[in-house]
Amino acid sequence: MREEKKHIVIRGYGTISPLGFDAESIARAYAAGKPAFASILHQGQPTPVAALPAEAEQKLQQLLQANPNYKQLDRSVLMAVYAAKQAAEQAGWLKEGVSVDDALAVNIGSSRGATGLFEQHFEAFQQETLSSSASPTTTLGNLSSWVAHAVNAGGGQISHSITCSTALMAVANGVAWLKAGMAKRFLAGGTEAPLTDFTIAQMKAVGIYSKLSDHPYPCQPYAAEKQNTFTLGEGAAVFALEQVQNPKKGTPVIEAVGLGFEKLVSKTGISAEGINFQKSMRQALAQLPEHDRQVDLIITHTPGTRAGDKAELTAIEAVFKDGIPAITTNKWLIGHTLGASGALSLEYALHVLQQQQYTFTPYPNLLEQQMPQSIKRIMVNAAGFGGNAASVVVGITGK
Question: pLDDT tens, 327-372?
Fold first, then answer.
């Protein structure tokens, strides 16, 4: 007798970003289509960034006040805790009177980790006044451990960095753990708080940071004009994953996860052909049913850099040939959130699947923008320094 197929479903998700502090506020922001950038002065230069809006910042401060121990944590950890509690509550996993859920595992990643605190502690070190909390609060492991405390998770706890593919790699881990029976429930996501002097300076040193501080669209993926418009943003998104046999109609499902890697050919680790993207997309497509491998929309990584954007579009052409799906991104609205970007793109995918529409990029660009008649399946791409890439395919049951 043939065993019934099991599905990896998204029971709930939590998010905080430059667009808002929950699904409703962020949906309104997506519908408005207004970029979330502001200009700050960095090293004497006007510099565009996408920070949390006032309402989201207030929610984060309320979380900070709720637990005295949170005052020593980095902003990246606080955002992860906020998003994870939201996801667990939506999934029905936050139960009163339950001390520890040994069947719940956690994997939260970040590209840069506690960079804000690290910079503060290094400054204190130079003044010879280093705090005893410097080491435990800057180690990457405190991401998932503090999330686990917040949601009473007693299963495996993983914190990791695989640069800007980090969040989708966490989702890949969640899928693998659930299929292997190593957990019954899994919280996976990414968080990033990179709006610090040192991190912004690093991106400027690479030569990719946007100089369009006075432009309504400082971050312009696929721009027709040949220029780099990389712009940093902050945020976090976490997903509550579970394996079930018969998901209800309308349930979000992770249909496939593909990973890719290529040998370093540049300081950022991406070739002109986007070989890593080609590998991850092909691997994901191969996991779909042989008779139905159609993807209706791709939410691309495209951070607004000339080389990176072109490489990904080239890879999409190589993989899909004459059947290229519609293409979009949310980075023109929120910038590049590094390790959290894949999670925030996946959150955007869930929004698009529900609304069946998205806002076209409004500046001159290289895309042939046409809304699909229906959007049943979306591929989300991410890639990072070092040559890695990931592609996740998400759909809705019954669509």
Answer: 999 999 999 999 999 999 999 999 999 999 999 999 999 998 899 9
The count of residues in the chain is 399
Assigned token pair, 49: 């960034």
Of 369, 382, 212, whose CA–CA distance to 308 is shortest? 382
For the entire predicted model, the pTM comes to 0.97
Q: For the purposes of burial, counting CB atoms within 10 Å of the CB of 330, is it exposed (0-12), middle (13-18) or buried (19 or more)?
A: buried
Extract the tokens encoding 390.
């990931």
Token pair 């606080």 in the structure block, residue: 78
**Number of helices and strands in the chain (H, E):** 12, 13
Residues in the chain with pLDDT values less than 50? 1
**Residue 81 token pair:** 């805790």
Q: How far apart are CA 75 and CA 70, in angstroms?
A: 10
Q: Which domains does the chain have, with CATH numbers?
A: 7-244 (3.40.47.10), 255-397 (3.40.47.10)
- Judge contact between 215 and 60, C-beta under 8 A: no
CA 114 to centroid of chain Cα atoms? 17
Whole-number Å distance between alpha carbons of 346 and 167 = 9
Assess contact for 83 and 310: CB atoms under 8 A.
no
**Burial track 65-102 (b if 16+ CB lie within 10 A, e otherwise):** eeeeebeebbbbbbbbbbbbbbbbebbebbeeeeeebe
Q: What does the pLDDT look like over 131-188, one tens digit per residue?
A: 888 898 988 889 999 999 999 999 999 999 999 999 999 999 999 999 999 999 999 9
Angle between helices 75-91 and 54-66 (to 10 degrees): 90
**Sequence-separated (6 or more) residues with CB below 8 Å from residue 323:** none
**Axis crossing angle, helix 115-126 with helix 75-91, rounded to the nearest 10:** 150
